[in-house]
Specification:
The protein is an alpha/beta fold. The protein contains 15 helices and 19 strands. The strands form five sheets. Strands 14-15-16-13-12-17-18 form a seven-stranded mixed beta sheet, with helices on both faces. Strands 9-8-7-10-11 form a five-stranded parallel beta sheet, sandwiched between helices. Bound molecules: NADPH dihydro-nicotinamide-adenine-dinucleotide phosphate.
C-alpha cells in the first residue's frame, strides 16, 4: 500500500513522525497511508516558504499570473485522477454535484484568480499631496483545509495567496489528506521550490503551524471551536486570520413560493455533499400554508436520488465522510425523535459497509431542539413551520451562526426585503450556496471573519501600504 508524501522546498519527503492509514468511507477499503509531520518538519516547511517568498513576490506580476495559469492547466490535465481521489477518500460521487464538479471548481477558481488585478489606488490627491494605496504580500501564509471539499477549499486558500505574492504551507485535514497531498505534489512541480509546501498529521501539527512566528497569515476553514483556539494562538504573533467557520444557515420559504418549482433547488441547497458543506441550508422555515406541500415535494426529490459508492455510475449521493460526523447526525436525529418530531423520510443509519445515512427530513420540530440549534453538517434537515414572516426572520437570526441564508418566493422584491433583515454574510434568493469565484464569501457573527473570492478575497491576503508624496 502506498505511503503518500509531503512537499517541502520542492522535495518529496516522508513524514518524520510516521504515517496513518486512510480508508474509503463508502467501502472501508484501505487507500494508503498519509505522513505525520514532526515539529521540525513544520519548521522546515515554514523556513522553505519564508526563504522562497522574497523572490516570488519580486516576480513581475505577469509572471506570477502565468504560474497561476500553469496551475490551472495542471488541475485540468489531472481532473479525472484527482476527482477519483476525492470520491474514494471523501465519499462524494464522481457524478452530480460531486468530485468532478469539485475539480471544475478548483480549475475555475484558479483561472479567475489569474485574472484578478490589484493595482495601486490614488486615495487622495490635492495641490499639496498625493496618497497612493498599494497592496503588498503578507509573507508566509499557513492554510488549514477541511475534509468536506478538501481540494476546492485548499485551492481557495492557496491560489489567492500565491497570486498576491505570498508563499504557502498547507495542512490538509487528517480525514482527507491523500487527494490534497497529491494535488499539491502536482501543482508544486510547476512552481519554484519552497513556494508551496505541505505538512500533515493530527494532534499538534495545526497548532504548531498557527503558533509559528514566521507564519504571518493563517487561513482556516472548520469548526467555530477550533477557530476560537486559533484566535487565541494568533495573539502572540498578531497573525492575521481569515476564519471560515461553521454555519447553521436558515432557509425561509415564503407563502407565495411554488413548492414544485423550488423543491430540487432546496434539496441540493441542503444536501449537496450530504449536507457536509459550510453554507448548506441547515434549518428550513416554511410558511404554514404551504408546509405540507413543500415537505411532500422535498420528500419526492429525496427519494429518487441514488446513494452508494460514488465510483459507480448513476450514484449522486455518497456516505458521510467520517464516523465522528456520522455519530453527530445519529445523535441529533435520535434527540429529535425523543422530542416527538416527525421523520418524513430516512431517520436510521443504513447497516452494512460504509458511513451511509439516508437523506432525512424531520418535520414538526421547533427552535430550541438540538437538531435546529446545533450544526448537523450531515444529511438531515429540520423543517419548521411558521405563520408570520417576522417570526421566521427572528428565528433565522437567533443563533450565533451567520454564514449564509436563503429566501424562497415568487415576489423577488418581498424576498429581498426579507433577505436584508437576515444576519448572514450571504443571503441567496431562490438558491442556496450558489458561490462564485468573483463574489466575496464569508461569515459574520460566530461564523468567522474575513472574506474569500474575488478582489475582496485577494485583498485579504495582502497588507495595505500607503505611499504619501508631498507635492
Ligand atoms: P476542526 O474544525 O476541529 O479542524 C480540524 C483541523 O484543525 C485539523 O487540521 C487540525 O490539525 C486543526 N487544528 C485543530 N486544533 C487546532 C489549533 N488549536 N490550532 C490550529 N489548528 C488546529 O474540524 P473537524 O474536522 O474536527 O470537524 C469538526 C466540526 O467542524 C464538524 O463537525 C463540522 O461541524 C465543522 N466543520 C466545518 C467545516 C466548514 O466548512 N466550515 C468543514 C469541516 C468541519 P491538528 O489536529 O494537527 O491540530
Amino acid at each position: 500500500m502506498q505511503t503518500f508524501t509531503l512537499v517541502i522546498n520542492g522535495q518529496s519527503v516522508a513524514g518524520d513522525n510516521g504515517q496513518f492509514e486512510i480508508r474509503n468511507p463508502a467501502t472501508e477499503e484501505s487507500l494508503g497511508y498519509a505522513p505525520i509531520s514532526s515539529e521540525a518538519q513544520v519548521n522546515a516547511a515554514v523556513a522553505a516558504a519564508k526563504a522562497a517568498q522574497p523572490a516570488w513576490a519580486a516576480l513581475p506580476d505577469a509572471e506570477r499570473k502565468s504560474y497561476i495559469n500553469k496551475i490551472a492547466e495542471v488541475l485540468t490535465a489531472n481532473t479525472a485522477y484527482l476527482a477519483e481521489w476525492i470520491t474514494r477518500e471523501q465519499g462524494k460521487p464522481l457524478a452530480g454535484p460531486g468530485s468532478m464538479f469539485e475539480m471544475q471548481a478548483c480549475v475555475g477558481w484558479t483561472q479567475v484568480a489569474g485574472m484578478l488585478e490589484l493595482p495601486p489606488e490614488v486615495v487622495f490627491e490635492d495641490a499639496t499631496r498625493r496618497d497612493e494605496l498599494h497592496r503588498k504580500p503578507i509573507g508566509v501564509v499557513g492554510a488549514i483545509a477541511p475534509w468536506n471539499w478538501p481540494l476546492m477549499i485548499a485551492i481557495w486558500q492557496i491560489i489567492p495567496s500565491l497570486r498576491a505574492g505570498n508563499t504557502v504551507v498547507l495542512k490538509p485535514s487528517e480525514y482527507t489528506p491523500i487527494g490534497t497531498l497529491e494535488m499539491i505534489r502536482l501543482i508544486a512541480a510547476v512552481l519554484p521550490a519552497g513556494v508551496l509546501n505541505t505538512i500533515s498529521g493530527a494532534g499538534k501539527v495545526g497548532d504548531t503551524l498557527v503558533r509559528h512566528p514566521d507564519v504571518k497569515k493563517l487561513m482556516f476553514t472548520g469548526s467555530t471551536r477550533t477557530g476560537k483556539r486559533i484566535i487565541e494562538a494568533s495573539a502572540d504573533n498578531l497573525t492575521r486570520l481569515t476564519l471560515e467557520l461553521g454555519g447553521n444557515d436558515a432557509a425561509i420559504v415564503l407563502k407565495d413560493a411554488k413548492a414544485a418549482d423550488i423543491a430540487e433547488g432546496l434539496f441540493w441547497g441542503s444536501f449537496i455533499n450530504m449536507g457536509q458543506t459550510c453554507a448548506c441550508a441547515k434549518r428550513l422555515y416554511v410558511h404554514a400554508d404551504i408546509y405540507e406541500e413543500v415537505i411532500a415535494a422535498l420528500k419526492a426529490v429525496a427519494e429518487k436520488m441514488p446513494m452508494g459508492d460514488g465510483m459507480q455510475d448513476g450514484i449522486v449521493l455518497g456516505p458521510v465522510q467520517n464516523k465522528m460526523q456520522f455519530d453527530i447526525v445519529c445523535d441529533l436525529v435520535e434527540d429529535a425523535k425523543k422530542l416527538g418530531a416527525r421523520i418524513v423520510t430516512g431517520g436510521n443509519p443504513v447497516f452494512g459497509k460504509g458511513n451511509f445515512y439516508p437523506i432525512t427530513l424531520v418535520a414538526d420540530i421547533k427552535d430550541g431542539a438540538r437538531l435546529v440549534d446545533e450544526e448537523q453538517f450531515g444529511p438531515v434537515l429540520p423543517i419548521i413551520k411558521y405563520t408570520n414572516v417576522d417570526e421566521a426572520i427572528r428565528h433565522a437570526n437567533r443563533l450565533q451562526a451567520g454564514l449564509g441564508a436563503s429566501v424562497w418566493g415568487s415576489d423577488i422584491a418581498q424576498a429581498q426585503q426579507v433577505a436584508q433583515q437576515i444576519e448572514a454574510g450571504t443571503v441567496w434568493i431562490n438558491q442556496h450556496g450558489a458561490i462564485h469565484p468573483m463574489v466575496p464569501f464569508g461569515g459574520i457573527k460566530g461564523s468567522g471573519y474575513g472574506v474569500e473570492f474575488g478582489v475582496e478575497g485577494l485583498k485579504a491576503v495582502t497588507v495595505p501600504q500607503v505611499i504619501s508624496i508631498k507635492k
